[in-house]
Amino acid sequence: MTGAVIAVDIGGTTVKAAVVDDRGRRRSRREAPSLGGDDTVAAVRSMIDGLRAEAAAAGLDVLAAGVVTPGLVDASTGRIAYASNLGWRDFDLRGALETELRLPVSVGHDVRAAGRAEAQLGAARGASDFVLLQLGTGIAAAVMTGGVLVTGAGSAAGEAGHMPVYPGGEDCPCGKRGCLEAYAAGAAVPRRYRAAGGTGASTAREVTALLGRDALADQVWTEATTALAFGLNTLTMMLDPALIVLGGGMALAGDALLKPVSAALSELLVWRAAPPLRLSSVGPAAGQLGAAIEAFALTGSAACVDEWTSGPAGCPE
Amino acid sequence: MTGAVIAVDIGGTTVKAAVVDDRGRRRSRREAPSLGGDDTVAAVRSMIDGLRAEAAAAGLDVLAAGVVTPGLVDASTGRIAYASNLGWRDFDLRGALETELRLPVSVGHDVRAAGRAEAQLGAARGASDFVLLQLGTGIAAAVMTGGVLVTGAGSAAGEAGHMPVYPGGEDCPCGKRGCLEAYAAGAAVPRRYRAAGGTGASTAREVTALLGRDALADQVWTEATTALAFGLNTLTMMLDPALIVLGGGMALAGDALLKPVSAALSELLVWRAAPPLRLSSVGPAAGQLGAAIEAFALTGSAACVDEWTSGPAGCPE
């Protein structure tokens, strides 16, 4: 029987779950709205139960589940100190899942799990000092230094979206001013485009589709990529990463994102070379794949994960 | 015989060396100008030789030397990849000292060594996640995360002075614009005071002595502490330190530094508490004490260092 895990990425609006086999293939998937609090826990339990039944029918032996969420996550205890969008405060998420499911469950942080996936399988493979900047609706970072993911004293490290890039600048929805996220996040780009009078786009992707043909779209996008370069200037100075990976939904813009950010960062750094800048190779499912890696680590078959991109040799049948 | 080491802090203008005994007491000291290149190496050798003779005469057994410098320092190899003020490029500093001195020599980075001293003996004692912001002529940081000092991929981490706090802001002597150091370093404060027309001060300490009686001094100092708060806002978001220590010569300003930076940081953070902010308790000699700690680590009597502040119990006579 083939070993597998169930990997769950709990977001503020959607819960995404999948069966991931020991070759790293997602075999079946489910999605549900994330309603917060106990409802989200119930949805996660129900999805795991359903996927487990499907996996068994397909000849897969589910060994563990890996769950990742935003917020202040203590991976060692499985507790969530605080997750604003999910309504959890000092909540024993691992306990709430393991007891009823009778399955080992790992609990991790969504962006750090994405960093783990990039390090083991993706654009940062082999790097022990890198930054993953996850550009979604908001912006957060996973920082690996000396081979270890930085969690901070209260599991709150990586709030790259709320670095002040323009002191006293535009209001951020978070209540602070001049945050990177207020200029460059997936939510900020269309908001700033419309605020400037633009009418042709209501998502970041639609704004990038207008580049070269809509002066407002060009302006807002240049301001977003410039703000990102200022943020990466700071991270390069402080952390000296071997490389920087841009991930999340906005990284799907490809060269339209990578080229202007790289050029602006190189110019800003003046006296040192910019670290290589790459797009995520795992893509927006990096958090979910990181959850699978963390779950496989629980089962003792973590080494197999190394084979996911290099081929199936060495993985137990 | 009492064990001792010789601790050497190589700066851009001065080399400071001292015999440090196994109680952490500096027993005798020497200073020499730092002329760069081979001249600095010769000065370090000569100081170590001289101090060693003095130590022997005082009944101290010199077991090792610890040397710290600015620049790109690889502590594992003892090589300096680059140190602009010292004229070293890909230089085997440890080899250049050990061979002639016939003494084990540790080579470390001055600010990270200061961080080590704060962690073992000073204001960050017991913390495994903290930032030491070293405020001297320039500004640099030591970052400890999960108990490990961050070096970065090329030993270049911690360049906090060259984080852009005001994008497109004032020219920094480094060639970049809007760097923290251009507003808040020991060199910047009197430069900005004079550029604004001030005539009563030519050092940062003299500017702080005028606070409350000279409106220009007040203004320039407020701009410096505000810039520091913006920088610490970023570091708090990214690293979530358990505490922040302000060290270096400017920390001798005491509450005149600590209070406005704390107040501004708390206000800027809005939705999270500021990490506690403390002044260095080791003081400007933190780098030298860190060099002593690194040298004692070579001798295998590192445990004794833990007793430096708690008393002599447990240290070998």
UniProtKB/TrEMBL annotation, chains A, B:
<dbReference type="Pfam" id="PF00480">
    <property type="entry name" value="ROK"/>
</dbReference>
<dbReference type="InterPro" id="IPR043129">
    <property type="entry name" value="ATPase_NBD"/>
</dbReference>
<dbReference type="InterPro" id="IPR000600">
    <property type="entry name" value="ROK"/>
</dbReference>
<comment type="similarity">
    <text>Belongs to the ROK (NagC/XylR) family.</text>
</comment>
<protein>
    <submittedName>
        <fullName>ROK family protein</fullName>
    </submittedName>
</protein>
